[in-house]
Design goal:
Elements lengths: L1 H16 L6 E4 L9 E2 L6 E3 L10 E3 L2 E4 L9 E3 L11 E12 L7 E7 L6 E8 L10 E7 L10 E2 L10 E8 L8 E6 L3 H9 L8 E2 L7 H4 L5 E4 L4 E10 L2 H4 L6 E4 L4 E4 L4 E4 L1 E3 L4 E6 L3 E2 L12 E2 L5 E4 L6 E8 L5 E3 L3 E6 L13 E5 L3 E5 L9 E8 L7 E2 L7 E5 L7 E8 L7 E3 L3 E6 L2 E3 L1 H9 L2 H6 L4 E21 L5 E7 L5 E7 L18 E11 L2 E5 L6 E3 L11 E2 L4 H6 L4 H6 L2 E11 L26 E8 L12 E6 L26 E12 L2 E5 L6 E2 L8 E6 L2 E6 L7 E6 L7 E7 L7 E4 L7 E5 L2
């Protein structure tokens, strides 16, 4: 009773808060008499990006079409949005969706979001993916609260039911902006009833009827967001219709009669074997029931006259555990309002003539890169139940096969972590009939492709040979080498992880100073790598992966985390940036020039820099601006764009000397909070309100635009380095120069044989990270003088 007394007041307050007057905030339905063609300019919709529409976000037969392979505008949103004056902190929205094609990758992506005016703050993303679906050819919808959705969680928080392409579903989402509410954030329903919503209010433990978005944020703009728009992006192949926003669940909920989208299929099998029949329907709170021509209404656990037994007779997947005779199966789906739909018939032909196990004569040979998985499949025919056992013989002679423990299905998946799994494979199938007849499959082979050992210089030279393809495809992927390269170096910068926390990016470089981005992502590593796999800056590592150029930047994309060999206990190494002032104009004017391609992914330093809020000389100041430096602080959990010149301020119209800084502010997760979150952009007010002595970061080319990507707040070296105290010692002809280095500046060492010079630069970019202030020289001479200074 104490528990009831504690909970009831909370529920009473919650239900009272929802008892606002019903208000339709927005309703397009995409059911106006639209003209087939571009959506812009029709009805209540516009496209936010680009601001000059391309006129190719299409509507056909009053359905908004989202097509991933088109050049559709980035977002279709209500033109005027809405204002929720109901007093409730919750906005409800719904839409009908008909998916025409499954995502090209299992992890899919988002396609809908709630946001405030003009996309200035996003939250409540709706995703599509095919991970963990039970029915072949089905998909899932998922939900996340904020733009940095799914910290440590991928796939998205998925609605549990498999959904079928080709039929309409009613999707209902709600977003509560009250941080004190027990339902703060996003909730997703698919084909809900009013009873589902009552269950949500009174019994949150009831499964399957809804799903929460579980991620959180500290970004105040998102916590207090005023939901005024819903947007759809062309990251899915689907139709959207009946778009509604309201203040109550009853404003937006809809119904649709049951209809099957995935039908059970005919099949032939041998007696004694199991088989599964799949169906997926769309409807409100569906209940499934399977029937057969032989037995009528089926029930689990019952063994019928011919020996058949069933599981899943009241779900959308029926399993016949022991095929005994020909039969015809069908499924009836009934919704919450007692409407029904009946699937097509599926004829299961059962061969009852006793048949010994047998295999086809097909031989399956596969060649894969190391650090990938290779699969072989050899299903047998014959009277069941069938029992399998795989055997393996390595390539070395003599060929001796041995049984693989635990490999007892008709297929096998082998992870190629090294070359011990390369060789020949076969599988046996046996049954209990005829004294246990045994069949042996054809011998299959797995061959592994050895990676090429490469230096950073070699992979940049290889990239140079693709310069014309890169220039022609600045915002796409250019594959340089898909057969795996092995490159060694050490971590130079951590860039953070993506908005869905399903990929991590960092940079590495070698002693030559040339670098490459390392991409650990769900598209090339499954399960998803998450955000905890970036080694500390300075860690030596060797990585094997595919070499590609993505959006203009050179990337090494391993197929597996085991393809990244690190030593977390190794001493942190010195990282020496290039002093890049001499290349400044070349980098700006020719992003695909030799210097630009060679320096891509490398740490560089510019000195005597002037910072601006935009590329036309706008000063950094208190005025707020999305992603812009105009606010004077770095955006948190997103990115900031800053611009700079060197050796002098911006001058109009000679603005070709403006260079962009892309400053990621993503949550660094296991490595700690972003060093840039909410921090003022450093400048030196003594020299100039927008002056910094030195800028250091990774140089990269993004979609044809050269960028500098700093990773530490100290990379914006705003204050002049203090006077140095230095010393030099000589031991066995080896000279060691030491000084007290500061975090932030990089240093150069100049040497001469006399005080009058000539002075030559012995080394540049020393002590960037960590700041240990050491230079060692093995060249002996009668006398040597050294000068240490910032570049």
């Amino acid at each position: 009773m104490k528990t009831i007394k504690t909970v009831l007041p909370v529920l009473f307050v919650l239900i009272t808060a929802f008892a606002a007057q019903a208000t339709i905030l927005f309703q397009d339905s995409v059911n106006y008499p639209y003209t087939n063609g571009p959506l812009e300019g029709q009805g209540q919709w516009y496209c936010y990006t680009p601001k000059t529409p391309k006129l190719n976000t299409y509507v056909t037969n009053n359905v908004l079409l989202l097509v991933t392979q088109s050049t559709n505008d980035a977002l279709a949103t209500p033109l005027d949005g809405w204002v929720n004056n109901s007093g409730s902190t919750i906005t409800f929205a719904s839409f009908m969706i008909n998916v025409s094609q499954l995502p090209t990758t299992a992890s899919g992506g988002y396609f809908a979001q709630l946001m405030n005016s003009n996309d200035a703050a996003d939250c409540c993303h709706v995703f599509i993916d095919t991970i963990s679906n039970s029915v072949p050819g089905s998909y899932h919808l998922g939900i996340g609260n904020y733009a940095t959705s799914f910290n440590g969680t991928q796939p998205p928080n998925n609605f549990s039911q498999d959904l079928a392409p080709g039929v309409w579903y009613n999707v209902v989402i709600a977003f509560d902006t009250d941080p004190n509410s027990i339902y703060t954030g996003a909730t997703l329903w698919v084909n809900p009833s009013e009873q589902d919503y009552e269950n949500f209010l009174t019994s949150p433990a009831i499964p399957d009827n809804f799903i929460y978005g579980t991620d959180t944020t500290s970004l105040t703009n998102d916590l207090g967001i005023a939901i005024t728009q819903i947007g759809f992006s062309p990251y899915i192949n689907a139709g959207i219709s009946n778009v509604i926003a309201g203040t109550l669940f009853s404003d937006v909920v809809g119904t649709n009669a049951p209809i099957f989208g995935i039908q059970p299929q005919n099949a032939t099998n041998y007696s004694g074997n199991p088989t599964s029949l799949y169906s997926v329907a769309s409807g409100v709170d569906l209940a499934y029931q399977w029937y057969s021509a032989n037995y009528g209404k089926l029930s689990d656990g019952t063994t019928f006259a011919n020996g058949d037994s069933f599981t899943g007779s009241t779900s959308n997947i029926l399993t016949v555990n022991n095929l005994a005779a020909n039969d015809t199966y069908w499924c009836v789906a009934q919704d919450a309002y007692n409407n029904t739909a009946t699937s097509s018939n599926a004829v299961e032909t059962v061969i009852t003539t006793p048949t010994a196990p047998f295999f086809s004569e097909a031989v399956e040979n596969t060649t894969n890169n190391v650090f990938t998985s290779a699969s072989l499949s050899d299903p047998a025919g014959g009277t069941g139940p069938l029992y399998y056992q795989w055997y393996f013989a390595p390539t070395n002679l003599p060929i001796t096969f041995s049984a693989l423990q635990g490999q007892n299905s008709s297929s096998i998946s082998v992870y190629l972590a090294d070359y011990s799994t390369e060789g020949s494979y076969y599988v046996t199938a046996s049954n209990s009939l005829f004294g246990g007849s045994i069949a042996i499959s054809p011998t299959n082979t797995i061959t592994e492709i050895a990676p090429l050992l490469s230096t950073m210089t070699q992979i940049h030279n290889l990239e140079n040979t693709y310069a014309s393809q890169i220039a022609a495809n600045p915002s796409g992927v250019v594959y340089i080498n898909t057969n795996n390269l092995t490159v060694s170096g050490y971590v130079s910068e951590y860039e953070g992880y993506g908005s869905s926390a399903n990929y991590t990016e960092f940079y590495m470089q070698d002693a030559s100073g040339e670098g490459v981005e390392v991409y650990l992502g769900s598209s090339n590593i499954l399960p998803t790598p998450g955000t905890t796999n970036t080694p500390p800056i300075g860690t030596p590592l060797t990585i094997t992966g595919e070499l590609e150029v993505f959006d203009g930047g050179l990337e090494l994309a391993p197929y597996s985390l085991s393809a990244m060999v690190t030593n977390f206990n190794a001493p942190v190494l010195n990282i020496e940036p290039h002093l890049a002032n001499a290349y400044f104009m070349q980098l700006i004017t020719n992003g695909n020039g030799t210097n630009a391609l060679n320096l891509g992914g490398s740490l560089v330093t510019f000195t005597n820099c002037w910072l601006y809020a935009n590329k036309t000389g706008g000063l950094i100041g208190p005025t707020a601006g999305t992603h812009a430096a105009a606010g004077g602080i770095f955006d948190s959990n997103t990115y900031t764009q800053v611009y700079f010149t060197i050796n002098g301020p911006y001058s109009n119209p000679a603005n070709t000397n403006v260079f962009e800084i892309f400053q990621p502010g993503y949550n660094y997760n296991a490595l700690g909070a972003s060093p840039f979150a909410y921090q003022p952009i450093p400048t030196n007010s003594t020299v100039g309100s927008n002056y910094v002595y030195q800028l250091t970061g990774i140089y990269d080319n993004f979609e044809g635009t050269p960028e500098l990507i700093p990773s530490r707040l100290a990379d914006y070296c705003a204050n002049a380095p203090t006077n140095l105290t230095s010393s030099a010692t000589v031991s066995k002809g080896i000279t060691t120069v030491r000084w007290q280095a500061k975090a932030g500046p990089t240093y150069s060492v100049y040497s001469a044989t006399s005080l009058l010079g000539p002075w030559t630069q012995a080394a540049a970019g020393l002590t960037y990270y960590p700041s240990n202030g050491i230079y060692v020289e093995t060249n002996t001479s009668p006398q040597k003088f050294y000068h240490i200074g910032t570049p």
